[in-house]
């Protein structure tokens, strides 16, 4: 009997909801907007991070870094167990799948200053100088770099030990170099270097964007003890594993395990952090709208209870228990919530797909999310119906029939 | 006096309402026994407490004091579910102001009676419900108006829909509160003839009325006055 009754009351709820399209629309609206905002936020978030991930995957799949393996010394410090040979570039350039190679060596300034003027005012507080890196080979190709202005130094500069530098964009800004048209000069430890280019970005080594980069051969002539620490490689798509296997052998045929090969580091945490903040804002907007939607459903259902006092009295006269009256009103508001959730979810998916199409992204959306949102709508409606249904159940039938007699 | 024939019995029933600190004693000790198959008319001046008494008979309200037995069983100890069960399965109501749902068709309004109050029995299959609803509507002369909406019916037709809704579950007791109060002479006569007919088929009827013609049709006629039946 219970199952049949449940079906009957569900049917009564649906029929009653359908009989008042105005109220229905009013009730649906808040849930629709709230659920829509939630689905849209989550969907766009997923799509954007999917976008980020696929870009990152692509970068990771086409670049590699070779570094000497390290071992813990007796005092607990990590030490490299090998060095990268001077002819590293020549050794790997012939390997199948390698599209670019560059050696990178950090430079210890050892107290030297970096400035755009020859004499530094000693009374001025010293600012932390940008990092200095020496590089050799096809740096742009090996780190996914892009120039903003000027040019990269080449093998000619290296052979002549020319004093030239390329500035990372952030380093250029902090040094006050905005253009290279006027042939700006950079003084490193009192020696003048010509700034010939500005590096806009580096996909695998963001630190280069805030560094001063000079030719490795020049650095070796100027600074003592310059040692290449990283061999950056550009790799053909799909050749990563092959290169990872062959590069160490090319560098040290008898002892390849002294080198480790890795994919470049994680995508910038700055970007993902920002994404997280935006998600939070939209999530908050969605939740607030949803709350407003819940209040909307509660309000319209409560209004319905008052409006339908006579109907409640009649149903009680026909044998409805208090619980069955309450059940009907909860079912009605849950149905409104489900409808709002359904429409909101559809609208959210529509926006995600639309925005993705406009941006040329691949829309990424958890199906569970789209369906879960409908469930959330139902739950919101159900919760919103609790108070009104309690009110409806408490209405005295004799009173209800007496006050609604016309 | 409690014969096995008594379907309902009021014993010293009182009902008072408290409003704004004042207590209004409407029923002051009502005794009434209605045998199975009886047809009782209750009259009395406006505000005498006729509807109050009928609400108690229909288990829509509880007495302040006194006893009410339905089918020989005291009702004081029944909970909401049991009282609702008696209403749904044993009592049919007809109100002066029809109480039809305007958004539903005639047939749907009658079918509403089957949604609740199937106490313990097997639920009626949908086909059986529909057959009984149509049969009740044919009986009240509305077999051809199944899919009409109440708004398109005359007052007399609406009241006949309400009667069909009250009898389609085959209750033992029909309670009618001024069933002809909103109807003209001709329509009243139709409704009255119908109630007569249902009573002749064995239905126990208690009808409240201002109308002497209605009272004249009943087997018994009692007047509610000063909170008591005379
Ligand atoms: N819930 C209530 N609260 C307060 N007073 C009530 C309530 N129900 C009924 N009354 C009062 O009880 C008295 C009897 O009401 P009732 O509706 O039973 O009269 P009636 O005999 O049916 O009158 P009528 O012929 O006008 O329908 C009236 O004075 C009415 O105001
Ligand atoms: Mg009355």
From TrEMBL, chain A:
InterPro entries the record matches: ABC3_permease_C, MacB_PCD, Macrolide_Exporter_MacB
Residue ranges annotated for the ABC3 transporter permease C-terminal domain, each copy included: 284-397
Pfam families tied to this protein: FtsX (PF02687), MacB_PCD (PF12704)
Name of the protein this chain belongs to: ABC transporter permease
Location(s), subcellular: Cell membrane
Domain MacB-like periplasmic core, residue spans: 26-229
Sorted UniProt keywords: Cell membrane, Membrane, Transmembrane, Transmembrane helix
Top-level taxon: Bacteria
Membrane topology classification: Multi-pass membrane protein
Transmembrane regions listed in the UniProt entry: 24-45, 280-305, 326-355, 367-387
Transmembrane helix found in the keyword field: yes
Similarity annotation: Belongs to the ABC-4 integral membrane protein family.
Automatic annotation (TrEMBL), chain B:
Superkingdom of origin: Bacteria
Keywords, ordered alphabetically: ATP-binding, Nucleotide-binding, Transport
A GO molecular-function descriptor: ATP binding
Domain ABC transporter: start-end pairs: 8-229
PROSITE patterns: ABC_TRANSPORTER_1, ABC_TRANSPORTER_2
InterPro entries the UniProt entry points to: AAA+_ATPase (IPR003593), ABC_transporter-like_ATP-bd (IPR003439), ABC_transporter-like_CS (IPR017871), ABC_transpr_LolD-like (IPR015854), MacB-like_ATP-bd (IPR017911), P-loop_NTPase (IPR027417)
Pfam families: ABC_tran
Entry-linked CDD domains: ABC_MJ0796_LolCDE_FtsE (cd03255)
Signal peptide positions (record): none
PANTHER family found in the cross-reference section: ABC TRANSPORTER ABCH.1, IMPORT ATP-BINDING PROTEIN
Protein name (record): ABC transporter ATP-binding protein
Organism: Herbiconiux gentiana
């Amino acid at each position: 009997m219970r199952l049949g009754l449940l079906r009957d009351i569900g049917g009564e709820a649906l029929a009653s909801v359908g009989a008042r399209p105005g109220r229905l629309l009013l009730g649906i609206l808040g849930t629709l907007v709230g659920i829509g905002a939630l689905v849209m936020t989550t969907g766009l978030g997923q799509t954007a991070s999917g976008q980020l991930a696929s870009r990152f995957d692509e970068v990771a799949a086409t670049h590699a870094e070779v570094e000497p393996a390290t071992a813990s010394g007796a005092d607990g410090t990590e030490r490299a167990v090998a060095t990268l040979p001077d002819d590293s570039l020549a050794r790997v350039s012939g390997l199948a799948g390698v599209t670019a190679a560059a050696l990178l060596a950090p430079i210890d300034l050892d107290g030297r200053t970096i400035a755009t003027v020859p004499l530094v005012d000693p009374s001025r507080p010293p600012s932390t100088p940008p990092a200095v890196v020496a590089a050799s080979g096809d740096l742009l190709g090996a780190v996914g770099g892009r120039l903003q202005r000027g040019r990269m130094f080449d093998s000619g500069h290296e052979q002549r030990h020319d004093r030239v530098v390329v500035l990372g964009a952030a380093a250029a800004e902090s040094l006050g170099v905005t253009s290279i048209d006027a042939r700006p000069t950079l003084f490193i430890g009192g020696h003048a270097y010509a700034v010939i280019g500005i590096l806009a970005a580096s996909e695998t080594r963001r630190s280069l964007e805030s560094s001063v980069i000079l030719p490795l051969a020049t650095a070796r002539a100027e600074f003592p003890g310059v040692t290449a620490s990283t061999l950056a490689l550009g790799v053909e798509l799909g050749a990563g594993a092959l290169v990872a296997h062959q590069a160490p052998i090319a560098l040290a045929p008898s002892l390849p395990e002294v080198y480790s090969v890795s994919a470049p580091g994680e995508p910038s945490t700055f970007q993902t952090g920002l994404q997280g903040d935006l998600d939070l804002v939209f999530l908050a907007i969605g939740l607030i709208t949803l709350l407003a939607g819940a209040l909307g459903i509660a309000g319209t259902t409560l209004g319905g209870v008052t409006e339908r006092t006579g109907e409640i009295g009649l149903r009680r006269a026909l044998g409805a228990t208090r619980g069955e009256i309450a059940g009907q009103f909860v079912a009605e508001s849950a149905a409104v919530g489900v409808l709002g959730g359904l429409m909101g979810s559809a609208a959210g998916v529509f926006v995600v797909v639309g925005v993705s199409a406009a941006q040329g992204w691949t829309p990424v959306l958890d199906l569970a999310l789209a369906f879960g949102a409908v469930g959330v709508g139902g739950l919101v409606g159900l919760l919103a119906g609790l108070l009104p249904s309690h009110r409806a159940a408490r209405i005295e039938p004799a009173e209800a029939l007496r006050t609604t007699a016309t | 006096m409690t014969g096995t024939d008594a379907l309902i019995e009021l014993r010293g029933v009182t009902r008072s309402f408290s409003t704004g600190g004042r207590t209004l004693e409407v029923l002051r000790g009502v005794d009434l026994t209605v045998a199975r198959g009886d047809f009782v008319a209750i009259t009395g001046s406006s505000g005498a407490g006729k509807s109050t008494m009928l609400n108690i008979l229909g288990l829509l309200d509880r007495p302040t004091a006194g006893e009410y037995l339905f089918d020989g069983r005291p009702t004081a100890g029944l909970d909401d579910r049991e009282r609702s069960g008696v209403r749904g399965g044993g009592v049919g109501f007809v109100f002066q102001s029809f109480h039809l749902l305007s958004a539903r068709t005639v047939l749907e309004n009658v079918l509403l009676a089957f949604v609740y109050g199937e106490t313990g029995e097997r639920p009626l299959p949908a086909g059986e419900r529909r057959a009984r609803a149509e049969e009740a509507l044919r009986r009240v002369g509305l077999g051809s108006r199944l899919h009409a909406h109440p708004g398109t019916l005359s007052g007399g037709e609406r009241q006949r829909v309400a009667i069909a809704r009250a009898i389609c579950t085959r209750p033992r007791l029909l309670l009618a509160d001024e069933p002809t109060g909103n109807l003209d002479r001709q329509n009243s006569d139709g409704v009255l003839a119908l109630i007569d007919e249902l009573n002749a088929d064995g239905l126990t009827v208690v009808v409240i009325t201002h109308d002497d013609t209605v009272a004249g049709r009943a087997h018994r006629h009692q007047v509610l006055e000063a909170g008591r039946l005379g």
